[in-house]
Each structure stands twice: as structure tokens, then as C-alpha cells.
Write a structure and sequence with these properties.
Elements: E1 5-15, E2 20-29, E3 33-37, H1 44-51, E4 59-64, H2 76-79, E5 82-85, H3 98-106, H4 114-123, H5 137-150, E6 155-159, H6 167-181, E7 187-192, H7 195-201, E8 204-209, E9 212-218, H8 219-225, E10 227-232, E11 243-248, E12 254-258, H9 261-270, E13 274-280, H10 283-291
Protein name: ABC-2 type transport system ATP-binding protein
InterPro entries: AAA+_ATPase (IPR003593), ABC_transporter-like_ATP-bd (IPR003439), ABC_transporter-like_CS (IPR017871), P-loop_NTPase (IPR027417)
Pfam families: ABC_tran
Length: 300
């Protein structure tokens, strides 16, 4: 069975002030949360902007929801299926209250769910009688997230969604996304640099670096593959499967980073070398190795 595709980029590139973004070849499956990770300036926001046509690519094609590519402006029926929460809020609705802004947006989105919107702003403690321009950054962010979900988009694009949120509000936001994803056909793309967002929400990771996509990998596999092992003995690290880096400790132990921990353990045990400790690498550590050229074993 062929997996449905939310969006596909074929050779997409865009010239920016400091660098070229792309060419990007990327296929996002439908019904998952995909985190786009990368340092500031890596091209994450430009990629999201091209997906909703805030900027148009200089080269390549984008195919939404498995349909034929479209030259020029997206048809309104496709645009209505794409939601977006930008890193910075727009000014068009500044003088509106949340309900007034919701009424305004409901005319543009045929799947708009006012009941869901009211539930979300209540759950996220968004003041209903305050104009958007008078809200704190966190309150405005929560409104934008509630409005984006209430439109019930098939593709939801989030640029740094936790920006301005306190830890409690962030936890509520995560719960709202999880509840919403139970529907099954929505795809969420999150541009972020925050590891906790990725670990709590994402199914897949897309790594961007200096305008290039370095690959797409399943999050759980990425986190499970990379381990740090301490052992004692004289077995040379290069004889251990999957080793990408090794260290000689002052106490005589050898410490290695491996992407094939089961095989590494088996090799050490068969050669009578005692394993003293195994540690999962943090996501940030894994990404640095990935950037250095050590891609995950299973990746798209």
C-alpha cells in the first residue's frame, strides 16, 4: 500500500541574502508530526514560507496532497487546507478580540470549527475580551495556535510554536496537538531548535544545515541508535561496530560513540571486555554528529 503524501518537494531552491536554500528533495508522509531542525539561518523558515507560498521557489516544484503541481498561486481550495503559525504574528487582526478574529477567519476556512476554537482558548487560558494587540506574546501565541487548529487544516505549519510560552502553557499546547492528531489525516511540520518539542511531539526529524536538507529520519530510531559506551580492556575502538568517535579516559577506560549498540555490546562480550556503562546521547549531540556526516542508519 502506497503511503499518502502531504507534500513533496522536488529540486526546490530559493536564493536568500546570505545563501541559497536547497535544492531540496523531500517527501512528507501524511498523518505525522515532522520536526524541521537546524541552527538559526539554516533555512527552516524559508522552507515553511515556500510551502504556503509566502515566497515562491526560484527552481523546482512543490506538490501538495499528492495532486499535480501548480504554477503561480495555489488554488483557494488547496490554500484553505493549509494552516500556519508564524514566528511573528501579523498585524491585520490586532484590533480584534479572539472571537472577532475567529469570526473573520471562519469565512475563509470551510472546515472551521468554532466549538473547537472556543474549547482551545478556554483550555489554554486565552482572554476572550482583550484585543490581540494588547495581549502578551504568550497569549497571542496561544490564540494563533487555537485559530490554526480550529481551521482543521490538512497541513499545519508551525514556526517556533513554543516561542513566548511558559512551561505550563507549553505542556498544554503539546496536549492540544496530541489530541488533534488523533484524527489521523493532519500533517504537522514544526520548525524548531528546541529538543523537548521534538522528543514530545515529532514522529520524524528533518535536519537542515546551511540551506541544505541532510535527510529525514524516524525520531525514535535516531534516539535509539546513538549510544555512548564505556568499557575496560585493550580492544581497539575501530574493531567495534558502528563506532564514530572514541576517547581514552584518564582512568584507563575506553569510551566510544556507536550507532550499532547491540552489535557493539556483542563484540565486546565475545572478546571478554566488560561494559561498565551505556548512555543514550541527547538529541543535540546526535544532530552534531549528523551534521558532521554520520547520518542515521535508517533515513529518507
Amino acid at each position: 500500500m502506497v503511503e499518502p503524501i502531504a507534500v513533496q518537494l522536488n529540486g526546490v531552491s530559493k536564493m536568500r541574502k546570505r545563501r541559497v536554500i536547497g535544492p531540496i528533495d523531500l517527501t512528507i508522509p501524511e498523518g505525522y508530526v515532522v520536526a524541521i531542525l537546524g541552527h538559526n539561518g539554516s533555512g527552516k523558515s524559508t522552507l515553511l514560507n515556500m510551502l504556503q507560498q509566502i515566497v515562491l521557489p526560484d527552481n523546482g516544484e512543490i506538490i501538495w496532497f499528492g495532486q499535480e503541481k501548480h504554477s503561480g498561486i495555489l488554488p483557494i481550495e488547496l490554500r484553505q487546507q493549509i494552516g500556519f503559525v508564524a514566528d511573528n504574528s501579523g498585524i491585520e487582526e490586532n484590533r480584534m478580540t479572539p472571537q472577532e478574529a475567529a469570526d473573520f477567519r471562519s469565512h475563509w476556512y470551510p472546515r472551521w470549527d468554532m466549538k473547537l476554537f472556543k474549547k482551545l482558548i478556554t483550555d489554554m487560558d486565552v482572554p476572550s475580551d482583550v484585543k490581540l494587540t494588547k495581549m502578551s506574546k504568550g497569549e497571542r501565541r496561544k490564540f494563533e495556535i487555537a485559530a490554526a487548529l480550529a481551521a482543521r487544516p490538512k497541513l499545519l505549519l508551525l514556526d517556533e510554536p513554543s516561542s513566548g510560552l511558559d512551561p505550563f502553557a507549553w505542556k498544554v499546547m503539546v496536549e492540544q496537538f496530541r489530541d488533534y492528531m488523533e484524527g489521523g489525516d493532519t500533517t504537522i511540520l514544526i520548525a524548531t531548535h528546541i529538543a523537548d518539542e521534538v522528543k514530545r511531539l515529532a514522529d520524524y526529524i528533518v535536519l537542515m544545515h546551511r540551506g541544505q536538507v541532510l535527510g529525514m529520519a524516524e525520531k525514535d530510531l535516531v534516539l535509539e541508535q546513538w549510544k555512548e559506551i564505556w568499557y575496560e580492556g585493550d580492544l581497539r575502538p575501530e574493531n567495534i561496530p558502528g563506532v564514530v568517535e572514541s576517547f581514552q579516559e584518564e582512568n584507563g577506560l575506553i569510551r566510544v560513540i556507536t550507532t550499532r549498540v547491540s552489535e557493539a555490546q556483542e563484540r565486546l562480550e565475545l572478546s571478554n571486555h566488560r561494559v561498565l556503562k551505556i548512555r543514550n546521547l541527547e538529541l543535540g549531540e546526535v544532530l552534531e554528529y549528523w551534521i558532521a556526516g554520520y547520518a542515521p542508519v535508517q533515513w529518507r
